[in-house]
Amino acid sequence: MKNDLTIYSNFNNYSFFKQIFNKYKLIFKQIDDLFKGDDSNKSGIIFYNSPSDDLNIFKYLSGNFLIFTNYKKQNNKFKDNITIINKLSSPNQIREYTQKFFSNKKILHKDIFIFNEKVVNSLNNKSCLLTDIELQILIYLMNNKTCSKEYIKKYILKVNDSVETKSIESHLTRIRKKFIKIETSTVIKSKNNDIIIV
Fold first, then answer.
1. Cα separation of 97 and 89, whole Å?
2. How far apart are CA 79 and CA 187, in angstroms?
3. d(CA 159, CA 167)
4. How do residues 142-195 score in pLDDT, each as one tens digit?
5. Are 15 and 68 in a shared domain?
6. Across the chain, which distance is largest between two alpha carbons, in Å?
7. Which of 16, 44, 49, 51 is nearest to 29 (CA)?
8. CATH of the domain at 135
9. Measuring CA to CA, which residue among 132, 173, 167, 168 is closest to residue 149?
10. Chain segment 99-123, per-residue pLDDT in tens
């Protein structure tokens, strides 16, 4: 399954990104989208090519972001969730920076986070190992707060639409049991076709 990767830029041509990130399912957004709705607490890559000499516009983003920029001077102190690459990079280096950045970042939601294939309760430090499928489902839910069962079936489980399966509920049940084990207040609810994390 291809993991989602959101790219924020003001470029009009995305063919470069499609070539270097061909192992990801790409979502393209404008930089302005970071400051609307809840994009600021998601995760993604920012390509910032601006004559402006100020990166402060990104200072208060709460999600995990990797910023590639042509802006050399950096007096700003950023939190650990922001990494800035301001040197010329080859396509291979961009891929490597991206992979390293996202493999070392925690994904947070209320009192839990995912790190090194574990879900951890940040209040009591209890943790449970996640299977690959559970990890993919939980990462998607934590980043998006809601999703459809069709999305999980098609993009995570890779099951044909015409096939009836109960495996989605089985995976969700196992995640819920792990939530109970780590004593989190976070809950996954299923209603009709929708799955919501609260």
1. 9
2. 28
3. 10
4. 878 888 888 888 878 887 766 677 788 899 999 999 999 999 999 999 888 899
5. yes
6. 56
7. 44
8. 1.10.10.10
9. 168
10. 877 766 677 888 998 877 789 998 9
pTM: 0.58
User: Domain check: are 47 and 119 in the same one?
Assistant: no
Q: Which two tokens stand for residue 18?
A: 């499609």
Structural domain range at position 8: 3-103
Q: Are residues 136 and 175 in contact, defined by beta-carbon separation less than 8 angstroms? A: no
Structural domain tally of the chain? 2
> From CA 35, how far away is CA 24, in angstroms rounded?
24
3-state helix, strand, coil in the chain (%, to 5): 35, 25, 40
- Radius of gyration of the CA atoms of the chain, in A: 18
Best CA proximity match to 105, nearest among 116, 95, 92, 94: 116
Contacts of 36 (CB under 8 A, 6+ apart): none
Token pair of 51 as six digits: 């004559």
Question: What residues form DSSP beta bridges with 9?
Answer: 47
Both tokens assigned to 195: 């799955």
Evaluated on CA atoms 88, 89, 94, 99, the torsion sign reads negative
* C-alpha to C-alpha distance for 91 and 97, rounded to whole angstroms: 10
CATH number assigned to the domain comprising residue 96: 3.40.50
Query: Which one, of 108, 79, 112, 91, lies nearest residue 21 by Cα?
Result: 91
